[in-house]
# Entry
Amino acid sequence: MSHHSGKLIFLGASTGGTEAIKEFLRALPPDAPGVLIVQHMPETFTRSFATRLDALCQIAVEEASHGTPILPGHAYIAPGHSHLMLDKAGTTYVTALSKNPPFNRHRPSVDILFQSAAQVAGKNAIGIILTGMGKDGAAGMLEMKKAGAYNFAQDEHTSIVFGMPKEAIALGAVDEILPIQKMAHRVLLQCTNGAQAWP
# Structure
């Protein structure tokens, strides 16, 4: 199947995130691990955002629906009206959507996605927190780290708003801080090589 040993990538972003997500996803090869994404945006925009990215990227990008098996070379963007979570159907990782109330004032919430990653994927998860205002995702990313995940944050220099990454770093949830231009390359190395440190 793919040489990425069952890894899954979980990405959260807010203000400034649409461009950062585009830069990250465009750098992924067709066999990249599956990516689950929460970008804070109104529900009228998430489908067109996914469609635009799908046209630009080597991987397939879609607005997430409920109960879809997560495939390599695919990214799933939370619809603007629902939380996106990781779930399992038997041994298969699948998407799950929820209309539960907003968390940290957000639905979709990065924390909800990251908490599900910690509980369901554990050490098979890679977390990424990109530019954004506030602290959504920080606590969930710490849960991921405690469950054995490896986590990345966008650096201050390339973040439009250094809020969400800063909060995750402050909690000790982040393993590496990188400019967005280097993120995809390092994440793919991490997926291939496990926890080896690379320069």
Residues 14-193 form a domain with the Rossmann fold fold (CATH 3.40.50.180). The first strand starts at residue 8 and ends at 13.
